[in-house]
Design brief:
Layout: H1 6-17, E1 21-23, H2 24-28, H3 35-47, E2 51-56, E3 59-64, H4 66-73
Antiparallel strand pairs: 1-3, 2-3
Length: about 70
C-alpha cells in the first residue's frame, strides 16, 4: 500500500471495510475526501488495475479487482 497516495489509500481502505465493494458517493463522504479527490483517486486506481468502476445510477459502484481482493480480503 506504500505505492498509493493518501486519497487512493482511503478508497482502498473503504473498499476493504465494505468487503470489496462500495459506491463512489459513499467514499466521497469520508473525512478529508471530496468528490473531485475521490474521482481522481478512483480513476488512478482503475488505471493501475486495482479497482473497476460500474455505472450505478448517478454514481459508480467501485469493486476491487479479483487479484487485489484475494490479497486483501483473505
Amino acid at each position: 500500500m506504500k505505492f498509493l497516495n493518501p486519497s487512493e489509500k482511503k478508497v482502498v481502505e473503504r473498499l476493504v471495510e465494505k468487503k470489496g465493494e462500495a459506491l463512489q458517493s459513499e467514499v466521497s463522504r469520508e473525512e478529508g475526501m471530496t468528490k473531485l479527490k475521490t474521482h481522481r483517486a478512483v480513476r488512478n486506481l482503475e488505471a493501475k488495475g486495482i479497482v473497476k468502476r460500474y455505472l450505478h445510477g448517478k454514481t459508480y459502484r467501485i469493486v476491487l479487482s479479483k487479484d487485489v481482493k484475494e490479497l486483501l480480503l483473505e
